[in-house]
Amino acid sequence: MPNTEPIFASTAASSRKRPPLPIWLFVAAIAAAAIFVGASLLAARPQAETVVVRGATVSVVARKTIRDIVSVSGVLELSRKEILTSPGDGTVERVLVDEGDQVAAGQELLRIDTDELEASLSTKKLSLEKLIRQGEQDEAERRFSRRQNEISIAAAERALTDARAEADRVESLYRKKFASESELSAAKGKLSNAEGSAEESKLKQDQAETLYLLAQKNQKVDMEILAAEIADLQATIAACVVRSVRGGTVYSLSAETGGTVKAYAELAVVADPQDVRAALDVPETRIASVSKGMSVTVYVGDSSYPARVETVAPSATSSSSSAGSVVRVTAGFDKKPERPTIGGSVSGEIVAGTIADALVLPRGAFLSSGNYAAAYVVSGGTASKKAASFGIADGSLIQVVSGLAEGEHVIVSDYRDFIHLDTFPFDEGK
Question: pLDDT tens, 73-87?
Answer without folding.
Answer: 999 999 899 999 998
